[in-house]
Amino acid sequence: MKKISIKELILYILIGINLLIFILFIILFKNTVSSNVESVVPPDVRGKNIMEASKILSEKNFKIVIGGILMDRKKDFLLVLDQNPLTTKVPIGSSIILWINMPASFAKVPDVRYKDMGEALNILERAGFVVDFAGNKEGYVVKQVPQANIYMEKGGTVLLYTFTTSSYGNTPESTYTSEEE
Predict the structure, then answer these.
(1) 106-174 is classed in which CATH architecture?
(2) Can you give the pTM of this predicted structure?
């Protein structure tokens, strides 16, 4: 049998101690994670309006995420049509994704900034909005109110601010007066 030197013995002892520490760390980590996280089935909020659904989920410490907007003329405005997860246990504090109904009389405001006025007018009128102008009806759109990508009732007014080049000396002429966008 081969005799083990002191250096080898110390090395084996250190490896053994590291292995024990690693095993203890895994056991403690497992106990910490499993004891702190309580999993529950989120309440079913389908069929409720968005305000009521938000209140119910918030009281149970869930976060709400709007996952999509569906257009259904047969359903009430801002009604929760579906949710995910529905019957799966999830940790408290998880995000619950809701899909809500938006009546067909609402539409998303398109982004018409940096388009010429004729093109912007066509896009907004096709989407069902009334267009109003601040200043010139020619040139390029530099700002719109309301901003793009919000939902607004069809027939609502979108105000456009324009930028034109004056025919006298090519000096810029703008109807947009604010520094912010």
Answers:
(1) 2-Layer Sandwich (3.30)
(2) 0.44
